[in-house]
Write a structure and sequence with these properties.
globular, single chain, alpha/beta, binds S-adenosylmethionine, 26% helix, 201 residues, seven-stranded mixed β-sheet, two-stranded antiparallel sheet, Rossmann fold
Length: 201
Amino acid sequence: MVEEQIVARGVTDEKTLSAMNKVERHNFVPESLREDAYKDYPLPIGKEQTISQPYMVAIMTEELVLESADRVLEVGTGSGYQTAILAEIVKEVYSVERVESLANDSMAKLKEMGYNNILVKTGNGSKGWKEYSPFDKILVTAGTNHIPDSLFEQLKEGGKIVIPVGDKYTQELTVVTKVNGKMQERKLFECVFVPLIEDEG
Ligand code: SAM
């Protein structure tokens, strides 16, 4: 998976590649889909949600330019796979998931696997996680038409947000850097994510 799907597409960051080699993706997909766990596409994880394509996890991780001392906020825990990749590289990961059962299952699984640098909570992650802010990096794993103000506020100066921005059907993977308190945006390529749901109704 790492050689054929990730290195072959140009990901070179050693920390990302080593984490992707180490974390076993089959532990994060439903039993019935285990034989597809290392294939080149997203898979359903229930509750109408998905575990992202391996390459997408890798490129988003690489674009965060992670340091071992970083504290990272993830919005959209899903299966917990991307959370584990981040936790292999950085000091602390805070992850928010709106679907309670996914948040609970992922937290339990990650704990059982021995990760003690991850906290997961159920909630609307577009509001960030103020209590633990500011964050060095923020990763949003669902598509949105704007960059939520709370996330930018909870980002440290010089920090980065990687986020898919666009409409309901397609987005552009976007890297936002906070420079002198202002947003600098860089667009990477088109992508398709499940929506970031901000209205809790
Ligand atoms: N990175 C995940 C993985 O590796 O399995 C994939 C995440 S999936 C593409 C996007 C997730 O974002 C879904 O689990 C969805 O429930 C969650 N989500 C959508 N809107 C959200 C919100 N406002 N706050 C937190 N999580 C949200």
